[in-house]
Amino acid sequence: MAKRKWKKNVFSYSVIYESAPEGGYVASVPALPGCHTQGETLEETERNVKEAIGVYIESLLAHGEPIPEEPRILQGKVEVQVA
Q1: Cβ–Cβ < 8 Å for 54, 73
Q2: Per-residue pLDDT reduced to its tens digit, 13-71
Q3: Predicted confidence band at 7 (pLDDT cuts at 50, 70, 90)?
């Protein structure tokens, strides 16, 4: 991906939040492979994922790698009948 200058170092990415079976929440960032975290509450999970994104981007910058732009993400839900 091409390098891009970002205004005021502000980045915006979609985050997927899911309830964890053992309690709390898990968050992942589809545009940043391997960028995920968890927390006991949604608020804690959001703080944690912001930190995870920041660390991820800092690592890319430190290694001279481009910052990924988020592709168009579509989310849907389908029903499937099983016999």
Answers
A1: no
A2: 999 999 999 999 999 999 999 999 999 999 999 999 999 999 999 999 999 999 999 88
A3: low
- Block residue for tokens 């992942």: 28
Q: For 1-83, where are the alpha helices, taking DSSP H only?
A: 42-62
Beta-carbon count within 10 A of 29 CB: 20
Dihedral pair phi/psi, residue 65, rounded to 5°: -95, 150
Q: Is 76 exposed, middle or buried (0-12, 13-18, 19+ CB in 10 A)?
A: exposed
Domains observed in the chain: 12-83 (3.30.160.250)
Strand ordering across the sheet containing 16-19: 16-19, 25-28, 36-39
